[in-house]
Design brief:
By secondary structure, the chain is of the alpha+beta class. The protein has 2 domains: about 5-80, Glutaredoxin, CATH 3.40.30.10; about 90-215, Glutathione S-transferase Yfyf (Class Pi), Chain A, domain 2, CATH 1.20.1050.10. Helix content is about 55%, strand content about 10%. It is built from 11 helices and 4 strands; from the N terminus they run βαβαββααααααααα. The chain has a 4-stranded mixed β-sheet with strand order 2-1-3-4, with helices on one face. Helix 1 runs parallel beside helix 3, helix 1 runs antiparallel to helix 6 (about 155-160) and helix 7 crosses helix 11 (about 205-215). It is globular and about 50 Å long.
Amino acid sequence: MANENVKLLSMWASPFCMRVKVALAEKDIAYEEILEADLMNGKSELLLKSNPVHKQVPVLLHDDKPIAESFNIITYIDEVWPSKSFFPTDAYEKSRARFWANYIDRKVHPAGRAIWSSPTEEVEAAKKEFLDILMYLDGTLGDKDFFNGDTFGFVDILLIGLTSWFPAYEKYGDFKIEDHYPKLAAWITRSWARETVSGSLTSPEKITNFVVMMRKMFGLE
């Protein structure tokens, strides 16, 4: 069987690891999660061997062959286990899914990080940038249940993995996503209702506590 030897090098707070866990759950793939204990103070030999270029999680080990970078990993998962594809069948719609997934990868997490990691005088600008980024995602979601219409797919997986961090952004940016983008907020609630999502993502409360600790470490508290 193709999924007899699947391992995931992971870290509990990483949104990029969380999205891979959602993808694996959506495909009903059994795997062993190998947690990196403390990436700031040292990385395991297995991680350094498996991802010598970036030295980062997540890394998927399939039959002991490493696949790095979450976007790449999720694409790999969809190709190796093709039933219940994450992508639409139409070539144009598939290209749109890749476009928005790339948009999410490049913009959402860095903008959110800037909110909680910036000095007070820079937070308002960081919040505006983050909300501007979400504006386009809210627009492309529109009135659909998911970004692919009725089906929870690639774009949903890429974005939902980041949402454990959203309450921390809201806390330090002093805003609520639902006040600006109620459709996107409803999508978050709808997606979290899926067992594959809720069982794969770290609780927002735990992430927010982690952010509090990080801010103290950076001298921001």
